[in-house]
Recover the amino acids of this structure.
């Protein structure tokens, strides 16, 4: 499963299986990488590894490497795909492994912090990319793969048709984003891509058919966060979290935010309720207004309690 110019038959087969399964390019590359790491660990072709060895490897990742749940999930999913599709194995260890759900909430930036971060970016292409991802609430790959034809300037809409799960969605296009994209496009004038790869000597942007590499923007983000000394855990996806949180704080409904983010379930979108105090404050105001006391309760506030009946009883008449 090593990554060479001429890939091995196993790597080619797994790659084809991933494509048939409709996996995104990022998932495709990640799964292949995890199987390659497994093979390197035992110095064996992955089709020669035993169930006992695989069990040892999972324990090694969990206990010795102390992989976070997210990293462990990627490793497990990639390896499980290989042993259920490419070289099928009926192994119990593939059924038993359970990944604990992450309960941590993502960090979000304030609007001022978003502007401070983008203002600190030196290269125009990275600055425009960050602003586009933030202002449209895009995932990393969705931003990189934006095309000229996706922008509808007349309707001020953006068509995202390479989203997660191959789901299309339309987004509102801010004027600032349209202006930034137009200005940047003038610098490369690629007929298809909005964020083309530069190529060697930065000469190939106008003709390339490849978008910028993810490592380019990820590396830029790390450098800028360090430069402006942000103490929060910030990555490209933080801009998407911040977009959703800022919309919620501005009064946009969760249902609409779900639509813009492309979430299948409203439950996924509801995490943003935990990232803002505005929603809780608004809810308190609404509840207080709805639950105003009526005449009866208002009347009882000033009403004196009835006097207690006397304990003395008169003689009963016969």
């Amino acid at each position: 499963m090593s990554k060479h110019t001429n890939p091995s038959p196993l790597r080619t087969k797994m790659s084809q299986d991933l494509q048939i399964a409709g996996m995104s390019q990022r998932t495709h590359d990640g799964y292949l990488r995890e199987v390659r790491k497994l093979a390197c660990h035992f110095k064996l072709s992955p089709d020669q590894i035993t169930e006992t060895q695989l069990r040892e490897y999972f324990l090694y990742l969990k206990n010795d490497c102390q992989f976070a749940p997210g990293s462990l999930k990627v490793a497990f999913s990639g390896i499980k795909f290989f042993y259920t599709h490419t070289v099928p194995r009926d192994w119990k260890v593939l059924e038993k492994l359970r990944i604990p759900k992450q309960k941590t909430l993502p960090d979000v930036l304030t609007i001022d912090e978003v502007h401070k971060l983008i203002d600190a970016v030196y290269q125009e292409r990275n600055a425009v990319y960050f602003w586009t991802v933030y202002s449209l609430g895009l995932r990393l790959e969705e931003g990189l793969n934006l095309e000229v034809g996706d922008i509808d300037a007349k309707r001020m809409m953006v068509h995202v048709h390479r989203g997660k799960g191959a789901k299309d969605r339309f987004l509102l296009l801010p004027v600032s984003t349209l202006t930034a994209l137009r200005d940047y496009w003038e610098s490369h004038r690629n007929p298809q891509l909005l964020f083309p790869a530069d190529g060697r000597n930065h000469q190939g942007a106008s003709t390339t058919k490849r978008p910028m590499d993810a490592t380019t923007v990820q590396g830029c983000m790390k450098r800028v966060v360090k430069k402006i000394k942000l103490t929060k855990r910030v990555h490209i996806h933080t801009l998407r979290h911040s977009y959703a949180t800022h919309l919620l704080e501005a009064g946009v409904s969760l249902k609409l935010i779900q639509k813009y983010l492309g979430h299948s379930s409203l439950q996924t979108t509801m995490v943003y309720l935990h990232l803002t105090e505005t929603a809780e404050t608004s809810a308190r105001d609404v509840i207080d207004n709805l639950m105003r006391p009526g005449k009866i309760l208002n009347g009882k506030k000033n009403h004196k309690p009835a006097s207690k009946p006397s304990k003395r009883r008169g003689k009963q008449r016969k």
About this structure: Residues 105 and 274 are 8 Å apart (CA to CA). Confidence is low (pLDDT under 50) at residues 313-318. The two ends are 109 Å apart (CA to CA).
